[in-house]
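Hi R.,

Here's the input for the zinc ion complex you asked about:
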Amino acid sequence: MESEIRSRPAFAHLMVRLNPGESVTAEAGAMASMSAWTRLTARWNGGFFGAIMRRIFGGETLFVNDVACPAGSPGPAEVIFTQATPGDMVELTLDGNTLFLQSGAFIAATNGVSLGVAWAGIASLLGGEGLFRLKVSGRGTVWIGGYGAITPRQIDQEVIVDSGHLIAYEPTVKIRSGLAGGIFSSFFGGEGIVMRITGPGRIYLQTRSLEGLAAWTNSHLL
Amino acid sequence: MAQFPGGVFDDGLPDGRAAASLVPGPEAVEARLDSGAVFVIGYDSLRMEFGGATGRMLFLRGAEPRLTLFSEAPGLLEAIAAAGGPASAGAVAGARAGQAQTRKTHLRNWGIALAVLVALWFTVPPIFRVMVDGAVQQLPLSVDVKLGELASSEMAGLGPAITDEAVAGFATEIVERLRPGLPPEIQALDLKVTVIESTQVNAFALPGGRMAVLSGLLKKADGVDMVAGVMAHELMHVRHRHGMRHIVRAAGVITALTVLAGDATGLLGIAAEGAALAALTSYSREMEAEADLDGVRLAAAAGFDPAGMPAFFRKLSEIAPDSQAPEALSWMSSHPRHDERIAALEAAIPGLVRAESTPMKHTLEAARAALKGD
Ligand SMILES: [Zn+2]
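And here is the predicted structure with zinc ion in place:
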């Protein structure tokens, strides 16, 4: 298997070349083009119940696709994965560790990676991230995408992240929701609810937020 | 020896971290990496606390400030207590004390959240109602009329209008008798009533004053006072602008949910749709009570017997159980809780002043005779 993230960072997309017999798992809507002999199989994203919960509470798609180049194919299958928002993608390696992903960040993963659904809690809901999060663990490669650039950040002391910017984090970090300042400045200063994150651990941030885009769009529609 | 999946943070590692198996021994906890490297924290310097994204991640730290072991595997704390005995007892007690403290904080936070919710539950709806009523008062009655016109095309779908003078004149005469009891701005509306041929026992008023009486109601009613009672009730929905208040309320709920949720997707979207549906299908309990009590007063002031309205409710609830045609009772399905309403009406009636009754030019009997298929 070979892979490459192209057109970085603004319009990143992922190319995966699967040799016969190889496969990856991808977000249901991520596949943009593929060789004719590629086989797509849809399955529940994190089990039936988890998929339904994520659909209702997290706004996620119900299915993920298993994308395979069947054994005996005439050659490697080249598959292009894209994301809905303009932005970067990064490749992360899991070797026995776990990562939590927020809604929409997951693009694809290799076979050794297991996808699960984990309760994210009220803090996550208040931060605009939904009640459930995707848990990726095991060994292999995970590709995640974000809106704008993606920057990893190692957390030791508490940091404050505006809601909508956190896309992935290690399970060792603790996340609480809170107000950016006092109640007054929070409601009138436009920052509102933020996430207070304490380490140790690493988080991945996207530089832009969909909320920001929605607000900007609304202000131009009216 | 038991092994627990977890990991290590250490500045010496290539990525600053690695997955590891944690192994509690008699004197120390070891973290064994795939690479063969082993990190050790002795019980003499061990400090432990729970944290992480779920709150169940156990962090282990020792004398070396740059080294942290962690694992979320259940049973690790117990295994450290068992393996270390007195040597690890202090660290284990520290972790448990921290856990108890966290639980206490959680419980307190949930308590506060619950108290805030309860307080909002009791304060927001009344404030909201006052705001809605204020908003509706700012809207001219012409908005009600426009809205009623939009909805009146729906009326045509119920059945053909009956133009026979014995039927149409009967309904119109009741409205004309009730009209003087209404405030001037409502009297100025086009309070037009149409009798529609239908088996349904129903009557309704649209915002702006257009009313419909379905002919099934004329067939089921035992006298003009019953018909007048229902029509007075419907006119009071017009007079109090219940339709407008309803729509503004539903719109307000959807707007509020949208503001709270950021956007109305997922569960909140479903809740908003449900609220809108409930709001548009039937009026609230207070609105119905208001239409009932003001309605009997209006009927009595026009010389009708105010007992007609509760008598009609009673008749409907009596024929309900053995009714072969559920659609015959559609007025009742949009006007539930009839037992309470009958009781409230009958309590109010003795205090009412009934105006002198003059005979109707159009009678219910003549109207019924003119109806087909009786
Ligand atoms: Zn009513």
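One thing worth noting: Chain B has 14 helices and ten strands.

Cheers,
M.
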